[in-house]
Write a structure and sequence with these properties.
This protein has about 170 residues and is mostly beta strands. It folds into 2 domains: about 30 residues, no CATH class; about 130 residues, Porin (Beta Barrel). About 0% of the residues lie in helices and about 65% in strands. It is built from no helices and 13 strands. The strands form 3 sheets. An 8-stranded antiparallel beta barrel has the order 5-6-7-8-10-11-12-13. It has a two-stranded antiparallel sheet with strand order 1-4. Strands 2-3 form a two-stranded antiparallel sheet. It starts with a strand and ends with a strand.
């Protein structure tokens, strides 16, 4: 925060037969310069994959004024064969679209169950009407260590295109 200093000014005026001197004293007026604002993305919900596979997800990410990002991402699914998949990621990058309706979260992850391994994830979240249902979540991982997301022949790295049926997504650019 900086301040602008206004100098003393003297104003002389005649009022009737009297001379009135008004003085404006030196004032310190603070100026708050808007720096880069903190970006936030958070959400939770229930979604479905094609084939009516139910999933649950939650995430929270903050892009701090210094550019660092902190947060977490989780997604849990029960596959048709009864196996589960749990993606537990640490958000290290956050990008909120200029239209403020979608966000991309990326970072390292550990996947257990179907597609098990350690690597990276990318989650693209799009708000539905009013930030709730009818949004989407596209989740892709790279847990086989080849540096390419979503290229496993068994589909275990995605992309998983989920339709959000219940929940809340909030994005603040």
């Amino acid at each position: 925060m900086s301040a602008m200093k206004i100098p003393v000014t003297e104003i002389t005026m005649m009022v009737g037969s009297s001379l009135v001197i008004l003085a404006i004293m030196s004032l310190q007026i603070p100026h708050i310069y808007a720096g880069q604002q903190q970006q936030n993305a958070s959400g939770w919900g229930q979604s479905v994959l094609p084939g009516d596979i139910p999933t649950l997800f939650s995430f929270e990410a903050i892009k701090h004024e210094n550019g660092t990002v902190s947060g977490n991402f989780e997604c849990f699914a029960v596959m048709p064969d009864g196996n589960t998949m749990y993606v537990n990621g640490k958000v290290t990058d956050l990008t909120i679209a200029a239209n403020e309706t979608s966000a991309t979260l990326t970072g390292p992850t550990t996947v257990t169950g179907f597609g098990a391994g350690k690597g990276t994830f990318e989650a693209i979240v799009t708000q539905g009407y009013g930030g709730t249902a009818n949004g989407t979540l596209i989740l892709t991982t790279d847990v086989n260590g080849d540096g390419i997301q979503g290229n496993m022949p068994d589909g275990s790295e995605g992309p998983f295109n989920e339709n959000i049926i219940k929940g809340s997504i909030k994005l603040s650019p």
